Amino acid sequence: MQGFGGVLAVVQRDLVERKRWMTREQFVDDWAVAQILPGANVINLSLMIGDRYFGWTGAAAAVAGMLLAPLMVLLLVVVLYSTVAQTELAQGALRGMGAVAAGLIIATGMKLLGALVKNPMGLWVCIALAALTFVSVGLLRWPLVWVLLGLGGVACVWAYRLLGKTDGGTA
User: Fold this and answer.
1) Do residues 85 and 161 both lie within one domain?
2) pTM of the predicted model, to two decimals?
3) Which of 117, 139, 155 lies at the terminal end of a domain, its last residue?
4) 132 and 82 in one domain?
5) Is 129 found in the same domain as 51?
6) For 132, left (φ over 0), alpha (ψ -120 to 50), or beta?
7) 27-44 burial string, b = 16+ CB within 10 Å, else e?
């Protein structure tokens, strides 16, 4: 309900900081998996956590809990918004919400930087990959799919090789 424009900040705060159901490292690992699965990231994460602790019924309950209340509120907001959509006030409010969502995502990313210290590639390599991704997509306007396939592929192969060296070569 709090995640208009992105829920990463809300989910991280609730799961890691408030409820302490996961460590930062576990959250980063699970969030990474949730991002590569098809569908909404937070729904994928709730499905994974529900299944991990309560099986398929937990997964179903977690997804229902994530979708039902926000769906009802969203339908109500759509009906109400349609009456004021053309006003400058409503359009300005939406622009402001977009800026807030971007700020929340950046702040959460900064909170989670500490978890990258334990990443096999190291903090600075991860920061460099994020910067390259930003420059490629945000400034050079390269298609995201090609940037992810290129940089993401290189990062995956490199991490796989590093993990193979640290666990005795069984990777």
Assistant:
1) no
2) 0.53
3) 117
4) no
5) no
6) alpha
7) bbebbeebeeeeeebbbb
Question: Burial of 105 by CB count in 10 Å (0-12 exposed, 13-18 middle, 19+ buried)?
Answer: middle
pLDDT in tens, 70-95: 889 889 988 988 888 888 998 898 88
Question: What's the rounded Cα separation, in Å, for the pair 19 and 125?
Answer: 31
Tokens of 81: 């918004």
Instruction: In whole angstroms, give the CA distance from residue 132 to residue 154.
Output: 12
Where in the sequence is the domain holding 47, given as residue range(s)?
1-117
- The answer to whether residues 111 and 134 belong to one domain is no
CA angle at residue 74 from 69 to 77, to 5 degrees?
130
* 161 pLDDT more than 70: yes
